[in-house]
Amino acid sequence: MSRMGRLVVVSLLVLGGCSVPSLEDLEAERGVRITVDYSPSFKTGCIVMRTQDEANPANFTEQTVESSALSRQTPPLELRALRRGDWSKKVRVTLTAHEQTCAGKAVDRVELVGEVGRSLAAVLATPDVDGDGYVATLGGSRGGTDCDDGDVRTNPSLPEICDDKDNNCVGGADEGLTRIAMFRDADGDGVGGEAIQHCVPTSGVWGYATTGGDCRDDDPAVIPGKTDVCDDKDNNCDGATDEGSDKNWYQDGDQDGSLSVATVKVQCGQPDASYRQRFQSEAFDCNDHDGNNTPGRVESCDNADNNCDGNADEVFPTKGTSCNLPSVSCAGTWACTGDQVAVECNARAPRLFYPDRDGDGDGDQNATVDEVCANETPQVGHVENVHGDCDDVDPAARSGLAEVCDAIDNNCNAGVSDEPLSCGGTLRDVVSYHLSSDSQDWRTVAVGQGGYPVWVAGRAGKLAVRKAPNLKFESFSYGDTANPSPPDGSPPLNTNHCGDHNWTVSWVDSAGSVYLGGEGGWVTKHSGTSVVCAPGTLPTTDNITGMVGFESGGVTTLYVSNSGGHLYRWVPGPNPFTELHNNNLNYYGFHALREEFLLAVGGGTGGGSGQKIVSYAVTAGGPATPSTHTLIPNNVGGYATAVWMGDADKACAVGDDGAVWRWDGATTWDKTDAPSAFDFTSVVMRYDTQNPQNPLNEQCYMVDKRTGGTGGRLHRLTPYGWAKGPDLTGSLANVPLNDIAITAAGDLWIVGEDGRVFHYPEP
Fold it and tell me: Which residues in 54-131 belong to E strands, given as ranges?
């Protein structure tokens, strides 16, 4: 009885005298259902099922499933093992698979024990992968007779052929076949490499050849006698690779049609589109980065080897040689023209440079021009084509500069200063009744902190003050003739004076009072209304040469130097004087900006040791420690007569024989040569602390005491040299000038012999 996917084999037993039961009853009461799985490729063979009574093995039945049935089935099989009625209920079932037929070799066997009414399952190993009807050998007693179940050309039924296989599965390949001399042909190109003894292969079997000599038996593109191609192989086995092939590729980087030898790549195929192979006798490019350099190109005048003959511009032999043009002072050379087809003389007019010593960007209008040719370097400190500076050592004067009130021709307008400004006056004599006497030899001038009052003092007890702008001077001079109504409207003489003393130095406090020092050590204070001539003299009677004061916390402290080299602290009140130092020098000038640091100038007591400058470090209420400074590059005879500090590290000092010294905060002073060796008497320095960019900063104003028809002069020294103006020429009589003072705003006061007082700006 069969169903789809199943083959059921049933043995029927007929019992006498009894009714015959149905098939379903026999299966339920007597049968044992068995499921058998096996290899699906097992189509040619036989499965034998033997059923035994477990209680009496002599009782058995056998059932078979032959190849005719297996060829129509797919695993698994469902079988029914039936027992006879007189058997016990437990049975032993043995399943045996046979190769080819039921009499063939048993390839696998399974025994099962079961009871009636129950199901059993079995698996038989019956592989026949190549479907040739023979089961693969499985080892031991199991398996069939197919020695290579993956190849239909091997099984026991086949004859042996020459194919390197054991076709008949008797244990050897190609046994019994005649062997001849052959060659191993691994690449199948018909020519072998290794020599061997082998049978003649069956048609369709490759790997052997009757001809040898293949030099590379793993590549069919390599064989003796083959045409050699460019493939990096010895195609014809002659020992050479790619013979006769041009494998050199060159790049044309600048796309001018010529190749660069340096870019060669040796290979069979073209590296990329920028490479090509060289034509026979083609010249290489000498510069493959420039399309103007190509073999055979016409030579241009461009400093390049255009035709690649190893020379640049060889058709222009004069190039680079010297040449001149009639109208040009600078020589030139023959150079390439702009179109690069010829040469021309490149001589050009020189560049014109002018000295600019003060660095204001404007060259000296009176200087000789410096012609600078193309191959020359301009001198340091020169500017090109700008030369309107009327005073090239003064950064406060140049062409185009705005005019300011300073008595200087700032804009270089033909020597005219301060135009068109209204500066309140010019630099001129101060006309006042009390300043007009020839007997008034003014020696010192001092101004208040705001520019007023202005005190002048001199020999024989002369003393006068201007208390405000546009006022006349008021006199406190000893020995002047009283006039109740001076003709110019000046106040009448005030007889409140301190007698006949030669005043030499002065200082004005914040209240407008003047402190005076003079010959014989005399000192006093005058308020402008009254005077107390005490304290009289210093502890020594040497002439007083320097005075500077400071105010702090309601206390006024003055420092005083004298010609005997003494330094005193003067605090008005009881016991006012304290000697701070006694130096073996004659002091003739003294200044300071703060009490802790003082500068004094003078010379040796014998006068022959040259000019001297000393600084003092002063402790509050204590002594003063001196430091002697060095004057470079060389000292000058006589005495240093005046010194002025413009800032904490800027000062000027002057002296006899035209000596001028500048200081930058160190202990050395640099000498500047004066126009001539006249004797300077006083100096001030301009320094605008509110405007560090003021061009007048660090400029020194000084006066001298010349006589002999020229009289004293006002001089101005910038960091770059001796500047022009403010000019006193034509205003002076033949008198020496003794002192100069400057205000924070830049106003100037100058005093001299014969009652002469000068002021800028004076209406």
Answer: 60-66, 77-81, 90-99, 106-115, 119-123
Return the pLDDT at 17: 31
**Residue 594 bridge partners (DSSP):** 597
E-strand stretches of 688-756: 699-704, 714-718, 721-723, 737-742, 748-752
Helix (H), strand (E) at residue 67 = helix 67-70
For residues 758 and 437, the answer to whether their CB atoms sit within 8 Å is no
Query: What average pLDDT score do residues 298-327 get?
Result: 91
Would you list the DSSP string of 227-267?
PP-SSSS-TTSSS-SSTT---EEEE-TT-SS--EEEEEEE-
Question: What predicted TM-score, i.e. pTM, was given to this entire model?
Answer: 0.61
| Other CB atoms within 10 Å distance of the CB of residue 534 | 11
Domains of the chain: 2-143 (no CATH), 426-680+728-762 (2.120.10.30)
Question: Between vectors from CA 268 to CA 262 and to CA 272, what angle results, nearest 5°?
Answer: 60
- Backbone phi, psi, residue 701, to 5°: -105, 135
Provide the edge-to-edge strand list for the sheet that holds 77-81. 77-81, 32-37, 119-123
Q: Are strands 714-718 and 699-704 parallel, antiparallel or unpaired?
A: antiparallel
What is the rounded distance in angstroms from the CA atom of residue 353 to the CA atom of residue 378?
Answer: 7
* Best CA proximity match to 124, nearest among 63, 75, 64: 75
Note the pLDDT of residue 732: 57
With beta carbons less than 8 A apart as the criterion, state whether 440 and 429 touch.
no
- Report whether 638 contacts 611 (CB < 8 A): yes
What is the pLDDT averaged over residues 292-319?
91
What band does 530 get if pLDDT is binned at 50, 70 and 90? confident
